[in-house]
Design a protein that fits this description.
By secondary structure, the chain is mostly helical. Helix content is about 75%, strand content about 0%.
Length: about 280
């Protein structure tokens, strides 16, 4: 082995040894720092007075008032609100005018003979905006009597709920038939009340949705009649002409659309639905 080769191997060995020594030094320093940190944490555990306490956020707290009612913490109120939002679709269907409107629009689409036009998204969107329009007076009362006093801390949460129930109760009881109320009073085994304002929500909600279904089908039946007459006339003409292989729906569809457009059908339907709620 030549002298140059020996010198090169010697330098490489020295470099490897220096790297190992540096790594050992770094590990020692890191161990010392970790030990100091553990010592500091142990001292904090033994003597916590030397460190500022971090205030915690109470998850649930209840305070009993002088009259026996209870106030809940903001965190618990937010939790209850987020839980209540999961029932929002059911409340939209069971306590507003949405059910009647969407059923009437669905029957109208079938009466015209259209399968996918207007689409479900358009019908649902139109129904939602009409529901918002019809329910605006009720929501204004809820905002004035329940939401604004509660935000101003003038009333408690239970009082706000009771104040919000009254406008909804008045709207629902005004659209519910007495026969439907009597049916669910009988099913529940509860005695009838003399004052409509005393009807409990447990009875009012199913009675209201039953009345809404009945009213929606009555309006749908009236809408269906003129389009049914067009189908019968077109079918009779085709039979008289011997064109039995031609579908009457293909011929009657343009006439039904033309009739609906000529009488301004959308305005009539929407006006009738709004008028059925007393607007």
């Amino acid at each position: 082995m030549s002298s140059l080769t020996r010198i090169g191997l010697f330098l490489i060995l020295q470099w490897i040894l220096s790297l190992g020594a540096q790594a050992a030094t770094d590990t020692s320093v890191a161990s010392q720092v970790a030990g100091n940190n553990l010592t500091t944490l142990a001292a904090a555990a033994v003597n916590p007075k030397g460190f500022a306490a971090v205030p915690g956020l109470p998850a649930i707290s209840m305070k009993t008032r002088a009259d026996g009612t209870q106030d809940y913490s903001v965190s618990l109120q937010i939790l209850l609100l987020m839980t209540a939002l999961s029932f929002l679709p059911a409340a939209l269907i069971m306590m507003t005018s949405f059910t009647r409107i969407i059923i009437v629009f669905s029957i109208l689409r079938q009466a015209l003979g259209l399968q996918q036009s207007p689409s479900n998204q358009i019908l649902v969107g139109l129904s939602l905006f009409l529901t918002l329009f019809i329910m605006t007076p009720v929501m204004e009362k809820i905002t004035k009597n329940a939401y604004e006093p509660y935000v101003a801390e003038q009333i408690t949460a239970p009082q706000a709920i009771e104040a919000a129930k009254k406008p909804l109760h008045e709207f629902m009881i005004g659209q519910t038939r007495e026969s439907d109320l009597a049916l669910f009073f009988k099913i529940a085994g509860v005695d009838k009340v003399k004052n409509p304002a005393d009807v409990p929500f447990m009875i009012l909600m199913p009675s209201f949705i039953t009345s809404e279904l009945k009213t929606a089908f009555q309006i749908g039946f009236i809408i269906f009649i003129p389009f049914l007459v067009i189908d019968i006339v077109v079918s009779s003409v085709l039979m008289a002409m011997g064109m039995m292989m031609l579908s009457p729906l293909i011929i009657s569809l343009p006439f039904k659309i033309m009739l609906f457009v000529m009488v301004d059908g959308w305005a009539l339907i929407i006006g009738t639905l709004a008028a059925s709620f007393g607007m």
